[in-house]
Amino acid sequence: MRKPTLLIHGGAWAMPDADIAAHENGISNALDAGWAVLERGGSAVDAVQAAITVMEDDEAFDAGRGSYLTRDGRVQLDALMMDGKSLNAGGVGCVERIKNPIQLARLVLDESPHVYFVGTGAERFAMQHGMRPCDNMDLVIPREQKRLYDAQAAGLGDTTFTGAPMAGPLDSHD
Amino acid sequence: TVGATALDADGNLASGTSTGGTLDKLPGRVGDSSLIGCGCYADNESAATSLTGWGEPIMKLVLGKWAVDRVAAGATPQQAAEAAIAHLHKRLGGHGGIIVMGPDGSLGLAHNTPRMAWGIASEGRREIGITRN
Asked: In chain A, which residue's Cα lies nearest the Cα of B13?
């Protein structure tokens, strides 16, 4: 019998002071959701899924709704989950019509012999397993549209992780 | 990017990472978060990790598995977390953060970005933090 434990993160970046309260609130909600699973004897994979689903639905975080936008103004999401007992893993990449990618990653882990699905194939797998697609604009919020517009207009390097331009012009980041 | 590691009463570890990627990314660009062994890894016999940050350097170093192997070799999760971020910056000038959980529920967290949001829950313990680097 082990002492159940949950450790989560909401991203490491050049977070401005104004975003701290929203992140603390989101982390608190995610902790509650994940710990509720462990406290009633639930599995580690269920706890991880519960905690991350809450953060995907929270606009404060760069995951799910409220994520950063791609160059053409869309949300494009990636997620992975891994089970330490079986070493089974499920990952999805570049999905644009999935509200909670961690739940799709869990489906890949549980329902397929594979590890990674990307793009429209991942979305088709989701629908074949009962997930309802969302519209990409359901995931886009005005704050991120403004952030993208400002970054493109300024043509500055990406300051997300250091608070200072890491590279020259924006396109050199990718 | 968001992530979680968990240890349940049966002693099983799990981890997960989910992300919207980087600002203004080219469509189709994938970072470390959804690549096994890079942004996320879990093995009952060693550790569970979830990473966040600038994906390209993290991918090149397969940093999630790198940190897990450090714990397997005897490092504590905190030592492995600090070593991983030091390795990321020293080798490739990368920036990011990592959480590490050992099979006994011991924890590690490190980052070299200005801030990182995190939370811990276990019986009798509930902590939330926005560490400042």
From this structure: A84
